[in-house]
């Protein structure tokens, strides 16, 4: 007489293991990439001038900034990894908006972003996607003047570096504020259209030297590049009075890099 096999007791069910830190990081990065891409694609049709493109690209890239102590690798390598993801998603989308988004990032994101983006943008342009009307002017922008001034407020010494571009919409100056002297880190970045107004503000909140010391764009850019490198390694300094640090450095770091690179390239 045959008998059916006895059922085996069920094995105990173990609780699911928590995701590893690496898996959590991948999920977080994916969510941020998709969220920031969605915002970029929503806003990019409204951009109608080079400065707007630079600021949008810089703001999106700034989401990924963190000082060196919070990263496993150099800033440029981290940026390249993220840029590769953006480039792949936008190239796959493949429409005019995608090309405009890539050009925004090229215009306003610095460091490791641009090389990763250029190939995808070129391929979309070669496939007949329409270039945004501001792109030619954006890639040709060069700082026209460099300079610096000193500001003492509440006993604190600050150096304001100046990178000024002759813009069709008026002069535009990026002003990284460096804590202390030549070896300081950046406390904030300002974007101003009226230097006289900035000097009046500084004079009302501290003591300012007699005038701006004008230098070559390359000289100002070299000092700016050194300050960015220190800040990327150490972190930002305490903000000066009236500063909104999380907007200033994070949002404007990319465009400051781009203008610095353009000035050094001549």
Q: Would you mind describing this structure in some detail?
A:
- The protein has 266 residues and is an alpha+beta fold.
- It contains nine helices and six strands; from the N terminus they run H-H-H-H-H-H-E-E-E-E-H-E-E-H-H.
- It has helices spanning 21-43, 50-62, 75-93, 96-108, 113-126, 135-140, 195-204, 217-234, 245-265, and strands at 143-153, 156-165, 172-179, 186-192, 207-208, 213-215.
- Strands 1, 2, 3, 4, 5 and 6 form a six-stranded antiparallel β-sheet that branches.
- A hairpin with a 6-residue loop joins strand 3 (172-179) and strand 4 (186-192).
- Helix 2 crosses helix 4, helix 3 (75-93) runs parallel beside helix 5 and helix 4 (96-108) packs antiparallel against helix 5.
- The chain is globular.
- It starts with 20 loop residues before the first helix and ends with a helix.
- Mean pLDDT is 84; it is low at 1-15.
Q: Which features does this protein show?
A:
alpha+beta, 6-stranded antiparallel β-sheet, 6 strands, 52% helix, 266 residues, disordered N terminus, single chain
Secondary structure elements and pairings:
Blueprint: H1 21-43, H2 50-62, H3 75-93, H4 96-108, H5 113-126, H6 135-140, E1 143-153, E2 156-165, E3 172-179, E4 186-192, H7 195-204, E5 207-208, E6 213-215, H8 217-234, H9 245-265
Antiparallel strand pairs: 1-2, 1-5, 1-6, 2-3, 3-4
Helix pairs in contact: 2-4, 2-9, 3-4, 3-5, 4-5, 8-9
Going by helix content, strand content and strand pairing, the class is alpha+beta
Number of helices: 9
Question: How would you name the oligomeric state of the polypeptide chains in this document?
Answer: single chain
| Beta-strand residue percentage | 15-25%
Distance between the termini: 96 Å
Relative helix content: 40-55%
- Overall pLDDT confidence: 84
Beta strands, count: 6
Which word captures the global form?
globular
Low-confidence stretches: 1-15
User: How many whole angstroms does the radius of gyration measure?
Assistant: 24 Å
The main pleated sheet reads as: 6 strands, antiparallel
Please write the string of helix (H) and strand (E) elements. Answer: HHHHHHEEEEHEEHH
């Amino acid at each position: 007489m045959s008998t059916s096999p006895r059922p085996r007791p069920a094995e105990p069910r173990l609780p699911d293991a928590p995701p590893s830190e690496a898996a959590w990081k991948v999920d977080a990065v994916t969510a941020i990439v998709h969220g920031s891409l969605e915002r970029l694609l929503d806003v990019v049709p409204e951009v109608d001038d080079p400065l707007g493109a630079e600021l949008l690209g810089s703001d999106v890239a700034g989401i990924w900034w963190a000082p060196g102590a919070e990263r496993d690798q150099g800033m440029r390598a981290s940026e390249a990894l993220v840029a590769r993801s953006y480039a792949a998603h936008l190239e796959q989308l493949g429409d005019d908006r995608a090309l405009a988004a890539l050009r925004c990032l090229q215009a306003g994101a610095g460091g490791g972003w641009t090389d990763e983006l250029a190939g995808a943008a070129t391929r979309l342009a070669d496939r007949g996607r329409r270039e945004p009307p501001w792109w030619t002017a954006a890639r040709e922008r060069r700082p026209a003047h460099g300079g610096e001034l000193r500001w003492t407020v509440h006993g604190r010494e600050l150096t304001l570096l100046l990178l000024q571009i002759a813009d069709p919409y008026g002069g535009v100056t990026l002003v990284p504020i460096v804590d202390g002297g030549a070896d300081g880190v950046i406390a904030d970045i300002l974007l101003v259209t009226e230097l006289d107004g900035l000097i009046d503000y500084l004079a009302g909140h501290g003591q300012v030297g007699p005038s701006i010391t004008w230098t070559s764009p390359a000289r100002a850019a070299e000092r700016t590049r050194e300050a960015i490198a220190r800040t990327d390694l150490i972190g930002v300094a305490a903000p000066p009075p009236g500063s909104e640090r999380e907007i200033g450095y994070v949002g404007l770091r990319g465009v400051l890099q781009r203008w610095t690179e353009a000035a050094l390239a001549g």
